[in-house]
Amino acid sequence: MSLPPAVIHTALATAYTPALRRLERTRDLRGNQARLLSSMLAANQDSEFGRAHDFARLTSVDDFRAAVPLTTWDDYQQAADRIAEGASGVLTTEKVRLLEPSSGSTAATKLIPYTATLANQFRAGLRPWLADLYTSHPALRAGPSYWSVTPAASHPQRPSVVPIGFDEDADYLGPVAGRLLSQVFAVDASVARAETMDEFRLRTCQGLLGAEDLRLVSVWNPTFFTLLLDWAADHSDAVLAGLPARRRVAVEGLLRDRDWPAIWPKLHLISCWADAQAVRPASELQRRFPDATLQPKGLLATEAIVSIPLERAGGAVLAADSHFFEFLTLDGESQLADELAVGASYQVVVTTGGGLYRYRLGDLVEVTGHHGVLPVLRFIGRADKVTDLVGEKLNEAFVINCLRDLQVPGFNLLVGTSDPVPHYVLFTHSTSPGLAERLDAALRASFHYDYARRLVQLGPLEVRPARPDAEARLLAAQTADGQRLGDIKPAVLVVGDRLSGVVGQEFTPNS
Q1: Which DSSP string corresponds to 370-389?
Q2: pTM
Q3: Confidence of residue 511 (pLDDT cuts 50, 70, 90)
């Protein structure tokens, strides 16, 4: 017997409120973080990694930072491969329950080990968010929700003794919450087993359109949802054929007119990425649903949960009850969570119960304030998203700021190419005159880019028109490269001649 949505959502809000109160009442942030680190080191001192770094003798945060170097995924690739083959006790003493795929900077796909402890650490962050969400937005309790589902067809296909991939976002919340939420899902989780992408899209769109009382949409990439909406309109006959007669009659004209607010008049909140390179696609999604609240997600990576949005904090606060955090200054100095300065930017370093130690997550955050002792963080870009054709070292966060300052609207992708000589091409929907010269001048604020241009190591920047469907084509190309549909991050800066043919015209010398 299914329970009413209001009963389920109220039960979850009530169950998770103590976690929210505990997080907000944090007083000794440094002490809490130190105790969290100590418990992880003690639990994993007999793992291969723990023995190699003598976890048994480490008694303080300073001991830990002295004994364990900063790491990147390259330091874990071999360990992850061994875990997939069935090895145990490699990074943690706990059993690895599954390997969750994630896109990487140096590896097309990373397989992140998930243990019971890591799952609990994620829940320690997600529960306060849900409690705050249902408390601050009580209208969400009255109807169904859409939580993004990843089709199994997009999981990497490789031999593994350990299962690969969650099916849906709600899996992060655990089996009890998952069973409760499944009763109020607009789209049944079984769509993850669709054999083709078109079947996945069809069933997803039919579920969404059938949910006339839809209240919440939770996705990662806002482009994922806008493209799903466009697909529904472009394939309206097939989508409508699967709806109950009454609902089909009610939405047929609205779907063909792409009148999204009229299709879901009670949609109250959309949760998605909305910072850095996601600002433009999030704005487009907000344009389609002007009366819905768009809540930027906190910083949640496959490897770790870093921050969670809280309405009363005015942003996303550090998930201080989840993992042990360090933050690198621009000079590479390691700061602890209680040492962060408002207005400063840092790279995130995390130690988790899944076996990542002093792991450079690759994300840059800015501290915008404090909520009690908890820093409020805003994602500003990827520290490791750097292109380097001839030593120019362009960083994506810098490129995003340049495009923002120049007020370049619409789709933008800056592609580094070596054909016929090393240079950059901006594929854009903008028709602003003189854009190539203005963007080149803005990029020259970067010393290395300016130096490469002055030495003529880099040719002049070009501007080329992007295809009308460039965003959809880019998403398809990223999926084909092994990244998971639904959590692919919007891209602004890439290297690769192949992508020129994906989003714009093929490169031809002197064209």
Answers
A1: EETTEEEEEEEEETT-EE-S
A2: 0.82
A3: very low
